[in-house]
Specification:
alpha/beta; transmembrane; single chain; Rossmann fold; 2 domains; 54% helix; two-stranded parallel ribbon; NAD(P)-bd_dom; 17 helices
């Protein structure tokens, strides 16, 4: 079959594409940033498109033409500069379904979420429910799959946060640690999609994909810590108000383009519990969904998983420290520009050139220190930091080599700061 997978390089979408390829299908994947995906899966026909801008059936018709099935594995957690929930979850799905009906697409698989409700005050759950309604109101052979907490070898968003908290040194911090969670292996989700597109599931079915038994969040974190091979640690409950403060900060970072899983929508989902009903799946399938223990055992962790878990929580600290360092450096330079210029004058520069150099350098420091806080500018800001540092070290070496022997180590300290920039570049990618 010819199958289109929306969100094809995401946590679920990538696993679905891998399974469909093994089944022998011809697969196309759609997403906004497809360059990395093209390199990793060149056999897939990748389509670069932003779903939030495909809001009419005519926009989708060229995309779905000739397809036998469509799998919608795309989604977003919360509104932000890169994400518009109503457009992605509802508007584009309404248009897509209409296009599929016009183009003669036979089957449609919608990856939804546990807890969708059109009356929910949370936009994630309400817009997801509206998208589901558009699917169920169609004439297509549809299947709606509602996975619990999806566990995969890859880790984005909430599952990355779980790994990071599990790897916390000395203890494991947890907000609402007693809330129930039912997990599902990403391989089981891909299996369900495979069966749905093949017609092996009853058409027009809505199915929860969750393990049989629920675990508390604390138990999930302890299981992840053991999976990482780290020494046992106790769970330390974090007051709910601290979680809300963290969510407000994460929401603010979301406005700057950072997609933190700590945002308010995630806390709302956790507060209601991530649980579903296994009965509907068990009644139609002989494939039992794996419990958490089996899921983790099937993807053993090694040193790279421990590296990732430890670095993940350090990432905001790295970027915050770099921003503060460059902002303070620039502001101090502007406040004490005369003193800084005097140093350059003492090494042979004219007063005018020295003052101009100090002002230009200080402004550049402030610009890159502020730009690194905005996700879309972060890479350029980091490259600017490298260029400025190398320029500073080169110019100082030529004009005032004696500064290398300064007892306060101003020149020497620039080198570890440069190394921290390289670390930030290495961990910048989100998926």
């Amino acid at each position: 079959m010819k199958i289109l997978v929306l969100g094809g390089y995401g946590l679920i979408g990538d696993a679905v594409i891998g399974r469909l390829l093994r089944d022998g299908h011809h697969v196309a994947g759609l997403g906004r940033d497809i360059l990395d995906a093209q390199r990793r899966r060149p056999v897939v026909r990748w389509i670069a498109a932003d779903m939030s801008k495909l809001l009419a059936a005519e926009d989708w018709l060229p995309v779905v033409a000739g397809m036998d099935a469509v799998v919608n594995a795309a989604g977003a957690l919360q509104d932000g500069p890169r994400d518009r929930l109503d457009a992605v979850h509802r508007g584009s799905v309404v248009a897509l379904v209409a296009a599929c009906e016009q183009a003669g697409v036979r089957r449609f698989v919608q990856i939804s979420a546990i807890g969708t409700d059109p009356a929910s005050a949370n936009p994630f759950f309400s817009t997801k429910a509206e998208g589901d309604k558009a699917v169920t109101s169609s004439s297509l052979e549809w299947t709606i799959l509602r996975p619990g907490l999806v566990i995969a070898p890859a880790a984005y968003g909430g599952t990355a946060l779980l790994r990071a908290l599990a790897a916390f040194p000395g203890f494991i911090p947890a907000v609402m640690s007693r809330q129930p969670i039912q997990t599902v292996s990403v391989t089981d989700v891909a299996e369900a999609v495979s069966r749905a597109v093949a017609g092996a599931l009853p058409p027009r079915s809505a199915l929860d994909l969750v393990e049989t038994e629920a675990h508390s969040l604390a138990d999930v974190l302890l299981a992840f810590r053991a999976w990482l091979g780290l020494p046992p640690a106790r769970i330390v409950p974090i007051p709910a108000f601290l979680g809300r403060i963290a969510a407000v900060v994460a929401d603010g970072l979301g406005l700057l383009g950072w997609r933190s899983p700590l945002r308010s929508a995630a806390l709302v989902a956790l507060a209601r519990g991530v649980t579903g009903n296994t009965r509907s799946w068990n009644e139609i399938s002989d494939h039992r969904l794996q419990p958490l223990e089996a899921t983790l055992a099937a993807m053993p962790a090694h040193v790279q998983e421990r590296w990732f878990a430890r670095l993940w929580l350090l990432k905001p600290l790295v970027f915050g420290v770099l921003s503060l360092f460059w902002l303070v450096s620039g502001i101090v330079g502007l406040i004490r520009q005369d003193a800084a210029a005097d140093i350059l004058v003492s090494h042979g520069l004219s007063p005018a050139l020295a003052l101009g150099t100090v002002l230009a350098g200080s402004v550049a420091d402030v610009v890159v220190g502020a730009a690194i806080l905005v996700r879309s500018f972060a890479r350029a800001a980091l490259m600017g930091m490298i260029a400025i540092t190398l320029g500073y070290l080169s110019a100082a070496t030529m004009l005032a080599p004696d500064l290398w022997l300064d007892p306060l180590g101003a020149m020497v300290k620039a080198i570890p700061a440069l190394c921290l920039v390289l670390v930030a570049l290495a961990i910048l990618d989100e998926r």
